[in-house]
Structure formats: structure tokens, C-alpha cells
């Protein structure tokens, strides 16, 4: 598996190749459509990402020291594909990692590639909430793993 830095570099190169903001949105829509989603039974209120433009669910699964993240948006929303694409992009970096890897990643990465430029304030806040939730899950599972070793 590639390191977080390697995946970030691939994403940085992808975004650097875009010649217009339309290319960026087309890419996000593409990865949104390719994202496998998750079982509707997992879409419980307790996994709802607060502050997101769409109803987005983020479900953690911690197994063998690895944090697996399942994300999807509510079907039937007016335009959940942008939000779903943002979530899928975040999962490209953080899913299947140890909590320590996630916590060592630069949370400003998405700002550095200009992703949040052009997002509505609601989507930008929702995306920030998603990233915050990922880091929170990583902190919790890191602490639980540390306790288990003691």
C-alpha cells in the first residue's frame, strides 16, 4: 500500500493538471460515481457528519490496528455527488491506515491543493467536519490501541 504522502502527491499532481475549475468538479463527480458507498443499514444518525451540505455518514471500523472508513451520502438529496466526491477523495488518503498514520498526516493538505476554493461555505464546512471526524476517530482508536497494549 502506498504511503499517505505518496497518495497525497498523486492527488496533488491530478489537481495540478486541471486547466479549469470545471475539470476539478468533473473529477469529483467521477470519483463520487465510482465510490462503492455502503450498506444502508449502517446509515445511523450517530454516524452522521454534522454540518455537511448533504446527509453524509462516516462509519469507522477498527480491526487489527487498521482504521477502515465507510462513507456515503443519503440517496435522494438534491446534489450529493459533490459531497460524496469530497468524501471519496478523503477516503483515498485515510482509509485502511493506522490511527498514527492518519494523525501524522497534514490536515491542511486539501487547502494546499486549492480544493476548498470554489466550494460553497456549507460544503467547505461540511468537508472540514468530515476531516475533523476522521481525525477524531483516529485519536479515539489510537488511545484504545495504546490502552490495550498496557
Automatic annotation (TrEMBL):
<feature type="domain" description="Fe-S metabolism associated">
    <location>
        <begin position="14"/>
        <end position="134"/>
    </location>
</feature>
<protein>
    <submittedName>
        <fullName>Cysteine desulfuration protein SufE</fullName>
    </submittedName>
</protein>
<dbReference type="Pfam" id="PF02657">
    <property type="entry name" value="SufE"/>
</dbReference>
<comment type="similarity">
    <text>Belongs to the SufE family.</text>
</comment>
<dbReference type="InterPro" id="IPR003808">
    <property type="entry name" value="Fe-S_metab-assoc_dom"/>
</dbReference>
Amino acid at each position: 500500500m502506498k504511503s499517505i504522502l505518496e497518495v497525497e502527491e498523486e492527488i496533488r499532481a491530478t489537481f495540478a493538471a486541471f486547466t479549469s475549475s470545471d475539470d476539478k468538479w468533473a473529477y469529483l463527480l467521477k470519483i463520487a460515481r465510482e465510490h462503492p458507498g455502503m450498506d444502508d443499514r449502517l446509515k445511523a444518525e450517530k454516524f452522521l457528519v454534522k454540518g455537511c451540505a448533504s446527509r453524509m455518514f462516516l462509519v469507522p471500523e477498527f480491526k487489527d490496528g487498521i482504521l477502515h472508513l465507510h462513507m456515503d451520502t443519503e440517496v435522494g438529496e438534491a446534489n450529493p455527488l459533490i459531497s460524496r466526491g469530497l468524501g471519496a477523495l478523503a477516503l483515498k488518503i485515510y482509509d485502511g491506515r493506522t490511527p498514527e498514520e492518519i494523525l501524522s498526516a497534514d490536515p491542511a493538505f486539501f487547502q494546499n491543493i486549492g480544493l476548498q476554493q470554489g466550494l460553497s461555505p456549507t460544503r467547505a464546512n461540511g468537508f472540514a467536519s468530515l476531516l475533523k471526524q476522521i481525525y477524531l476517530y483516529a485519536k479515539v482508536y489510537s488511545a484504545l490501541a495504546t490502552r490495550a497494549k498496557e
